[in-house]
Design a protein that fits this description.
This protein is mainly α and 143 residues long. It is built from five helices and no strands. The radius of gyration is 22 Å and the shape is elongated.
Length: 143
C-alpha cells in the first residue's frame, strides 16, 4: 500500500465522519422542531439521539487512538531502521515478536519504506494530533 492510498483512505474516513455528524445534526433539528411543536415523544427521542451521538463520538475517538498508535508504531520503526542503517558495523538486535506477531527484523533499512507514510497527509495529521469525529462542540450545539 502506498502513501497516496493511505492519505486517500484517511480523507474518506474523515468524510464519512463528517457525514455522520451532519446526519445527527439534521435529525436533532427535526426532533427539536417536533418538540417545540408540542410532540411529547420528541423530547425523549432527542435525549436518545444525544446518547447515540455520544456513542458515535466515543467510537470515533477510539478510531483516532488506533490511528495514532499505528502512526507511532511506524514512526518508531522508521527511526529504528534509520539508526540501524547509520551504524552498519553494529548488528541490529533481534526484536522479539509482539502481541500481533509482528517482529521488527524484516522492516528493511533506512526508513525509506516509511518516509513517505510519515510525510503524507495522514502522517502529518497524526503528528499534529488531528482528530476526526463528532466533537463535543457539535454535540453541545445540537443539544
Amino acid at each position: 500500500m502506498d502513501t497516496e492510498t493511505i492519505d486517500q483512505e484517511y480523507k474518506q474516513l474523515q468524510s464519512e465522519f463528517e457525514d455522520a455528524a451532519k446526519s445527527v445534526q439534521e435529525f436533532a433539528q427535526k426532533l427539536q422542531s417536533a418538540a417545540d411543536g408540542g410532540d411529547a415523544n420528541a423530547k425523549e427521542w432527542l435525549l436518545d439521539l444525544k446518547q447515540v451521538a455520544l456513542d458515535i463520538k466515543d467510537e470515533q475517538m477510539q478510531v483516532n487512538n488506533l490511528l495514532t498508535a499505528l502512526h507511532q508504531f511506524v514512526a518508531n520503526a522508521s527511526q529504528q531502521a534509520q539508526q540501524a542503517q547509520q551504524a552498519p558495523q553494529q548488528p541490529m538486535p533481534q526484536q522479539p515478536m509482539g502481541r500481533g506477531g509482528l517482529g521488527m527484523g524484516g522492516m528493511g533499512g533506512g526508513g525509506g519504506m516509511f518516509g513517505g507514510f510519515l510525510g503524507g497527509g495522514f502522517g502529518r495529521a497524526m503528528e499534529m494530533g488531528a482528530g476526526i469525529g463528532l466533537g463535543q462542540d457539535l454535540i453541545n450545539s445540537i443539544f
